């Protein structure tokens, strides 16, 4: 069970007594610490952003070194005069024993860190600390135990409160978000969410989806769904998918816009069931897999699989009962179809959009030729999209087949490539060539789209190219690429279309 603490204020019946005493205290408000419980298990950051070494421990050591540096600074009897601003002087007190009037025992048993604090500074930075130290139910404890927060995350929060600095890393950001939520430090929490959004990928999207629901961050939840929908196969086959809770599993399995084959969804559910059996310390048998899946198995749209996928995969998995297997085979073949508990309507998936960058196209007797040279263009977008493939021109001399090697790079790093063939019918239409998986494109960064074609030497080519194209809610910008050795640029050439999901 995970507990999140928040502060609830209510009118105190002792307000009249306080007024009668003539004291100059704050208004008579009583702060009550309440606990919100959730069935979901809080994942540690290291589970979502795995590393080879315990960086969180290194983070604590870094802060401890800063503590030593601060203590060295205050050996000067007039250390206050060394700093011109209150922010700088306040920063000296961060993780510093000087004038510390409270200590925190942070972390679980065996990994506890004792950290100094200053009640006034903490109360100014957090309403929870204010209630803890100055509220009418305040307890005057010199040492406070906080077992549910990681030391590195607690120090990151203190650094923000004392120094007005946000110090996040992939290894501590989730735990820091938990601490910021617990102690109601909203600006730090927002920075954590922004960090997670920029670090979001198919590998961690499913786990972050679970955590975003736990932390009640709807914007992060929406970003997770965008990645899971567009890169469904990569997300469902990631290690993180097996770590999600049952509620998140069900929400993914019933998702209408998953952009993948149903056999991929089925195999992912079996992988999750295998991991769940291990978590429950039971044998990973077919019966137990079916048991831990429960009713979630009926969210898999097995009747919409290709017949080969069902016959060679789901039907032989052992997870389905004999009756279910027979009924699904009849569903595929019989005129009078049996009723099934499984959904039989295919998922809608995502509809690809096309960004067309030319206003016209043409052909000439001496161009466009292909002799192993590269056609390339650079582009940038103003919001995250997923490039699924390119639209390419075909032969201007009747029908022809082309071999196309397509690539997508960012600052020279290869993000996606594919080698495939397409058939052109001699028209000026564009013909799609797809990547194996959609490639995630981040905003405000230029990417390089390239193709090397082999086929009929003469083809159509684009003219009157545009440097900026608006496609729905996404704006594309184009510029010439130094990788282009066959003449393609902004004004004309190949790669007339980018096919994408948004």
From TrEMBL:
Organism: Takifugu rubripes (Japanese pufferfish)
Record lineage: Eukaryota, Metazoa, Chordata, Craniata, Vertebrata
Protein's recorded name: BTB domain containing 3
Residue span(s) of domain BTB: 100-170
GO cellular component entries: cytosol
Annotated compartments: Cytoplasm
Signal peptide stretch: none
Coiled coil: none
A Pfam family that the UniProt record links to this protein: PHR
GO BP term, pick one: cerebral cortex development
Xref: InterPro entries: BACK, BTB/POZ_dom, Btbd6a-like_BACK, PHR, PHR_sf, SKP1/BTB/POZ_sf
Free-text function comment from the UniProt entry: Adapter protein for the cul3 E3 ubiquitin-protein ligase complex. Promotes the export of zbtb16/plzf from the nucleus to the cytoplasm and targets zbtb16/plzf for ubiquitination and degradation. Up-regulates neurog1 expression and antagonizes zbtb16/plzf, to promote neurogenesis.
Main subcellular location: cytoplasm
Keyword Cytoplasm: yes
Stored Gene3D superfamilies: 1.25.40.420, PHR domain (2.60.120.820), Potassium Channel Kv1.1, Chain A (3.30.710.10)
Location of region: Disordered: 1-24
Annotated SUPFAM superfamilies: POZ domain
Zinc-finger in keyword set: no
